[in-house]
Design a protein that fits this description.
The protein is mostly helical. It is about 90% helix and about 0% strand.
């Protein structure tokens, strides 16, 4: 579960940066 929680912020950050850039 901790791995999922650690991976979630990365997923949202990648999605956000993907839209911005």
């Amino acid at each position: 579960m901790s791995v999922y929680i650690s991976f979630t912020p990365v997923f949202f950050a990648n999605f956000y940066l993907g839209r911005v850039w």
